[in-house]
Design goal:
single chain; 400 residues; alpha/beta; Rossmann fold; six-stranded parallel sheet; six-stranded mixed sheet; 17 helices; disordered C terminus
Length: 400
């Protein structure tokens, strides 16, 4: 384009997901722009009179209501929603609910929970929560695949309908579940409601009820008591990809995908799931030792020694209760910690390898690739591309 494009952003900023989307869009504009922005955080209803008169070149909005208005404008548009079906006529940014649910399920299973449950949101005329149902279905599939019973669910009505009565009903449901129980909430807001209902029911978190949310909104997760674990969704990367798709639309490029999948990378563990929900004391002690010592080079004999039983007996317990070996548990915990360091820190590959007790980066890379099916550098590029934009470019030794 021969002039500065005018781009309308209809994205709220009261939650971490919206702020991260805006950061990703801004990053793209700094890299490939300049763009001129009109930003309205309150949505299409408030912005519509202005949007009609702006002669905008492109629009990015969060939400899927009243899209017929935008279609009538004929302006290139990217919709950041949760829908399983695409909004016809637009490029759609869709969260990967299947991966989100799998990560939540595996985290609760690795914490030793044998009783699992799900809490989601009900759809309304204003808020379509297909994404909550998708996460519920994928969560159930992963739990059943682990050989456990299908998890029961509780679907919350909208908050403005009578939260006092809803919280009392939710508390009674929580009290009725077999304990200890691990609960996946469809997002962080839902998770906070579950934890408040736990207080009403007199249920200790995480000793009796473990709770994990989705989105990893640091403010929401930090305000909960105790702080809440959450699945990390790459919203900043999604904002960058959304802006790139809009740029191609505005330039009249073809072969632009109708859907862009917003990926989830890992679980940010906080105290709401910091427990080992295993009745067998030897197995619980072994799993706690693995979690506490995964940052150093750890062998099977080290784990067996702290439990006070034979290695053969401990292996039998692991097979019986986790479906895998002691070594499987060590590798899973270590690669999980490596993945978090790659995404959440600016440490170089060599520094992470040293911190995790590997003799060299080659051994470190082979170990990580065997579990995650990609190299540490590829993992960081996929899930933490914003680090390179802030501080330079990626090399094999980190960000420079």
């Amino acid at each position: 384009m021969n002039r500065t494009p005018k781009v309308v952003l209809l994205i709220e900023s009261s939650r971490g997901a919206g702020r991260a989307l805006l950061c990703g869009i801004a990053r793209y504009a700094h890299d490939r722009g300049p763009w001129s922005f009109y930003w309205e955080p309150r949505g299409l209803d408030t912005a519509w009179p202005v949007v009609e008169s702006l002669e905008a070149d492109g629009i990015i909005l969060r939400g899927v209501a009243q899209l017929d208005k935008l279609l009538s404008l004929g302006v290139p548009t990217v919709v950041a929603g949760h829908r399983s079906d695409v909004a016809s006529g637009f490029v759609n940014l869709i969260t990967d609910s299947a991966t989100i649910a799998r990560l939540a399920a595996e985290h609760l299973l690795e914490s030793g929970f044998k009783h699992l449950a799900y809490c989601g949101f009900q759809s309304t005329l204003l808020e379509h929560t297909n994404w909550s149902r998708q996460r519920q279905t994928s969560f159930e599939e992963r739990i059943v695949a682990a050989g456990l019973a299908a998890p029961p669910s509780y679907i919350l009505a909208p908050m403005n309908q009578n939260w006092g009565r809803e919280r009392a009903d939710l508390a009674r449901w929580l009290a009725s579940l077999p304990k200890p129980v691990g609960i996946m909430a469809c997002n962080d807001d839902c998770g906070v409601q579950v934890m408040e209902a736990c207080k009403l029911a007199g249920l200790a978190v995480p000793e009796t009820v473990g709770v994990i949310g989705v989105d990893n909104d640091e403010v929401v997760c930090g305000l909960s008591d105790p702080p809440m674990s959450s699945v990390v969704v790459q919203f900043e990367q999604a904002g960058y990809l959304a802006a790139g798709a809009l740029d191609r639309l505005m330039r009249g490029r073809k072969k632009i995908p109708a859907q862009i999948l917003v990926s989830a990378s890992h679980v940010f563990t906080r105290r709401s799931t910091d427990t080992i929900a295993i009745e067998n004391p030897h197995l619980a002690r072994a799993l706690r030792h693995i979690r506490d010592q995964a940052g150093v080079s750890l062998c099977v004999d080290d784990v067996a020694q702290v439990t006070g039983i034979s290695r053969r007996g401990l292996e039998r317990l692991f097979r019986q209760h986790t479906g895998g070996s002691i070594l499987d548990a060590i590798r899973r915990e270590r690669t999980g910690q490596i993945a978090r360091l790659l995404v959440e820190t600016r440490l170089s590959i060599r520094q992470i390898a040293d911190r995790m007790g590997f003799p060299d980066t080659q051994h470190f890379a082979r170990y990580f690739r065997a579990a995650k099916k990609m190299s540490p550098l590829a993992w960081r590029r996929k899930f933490a591309g914003h680090l390179a934009q802030i501080g330079g470019k990626f090399t094999q030794n980190g960000v420079v």
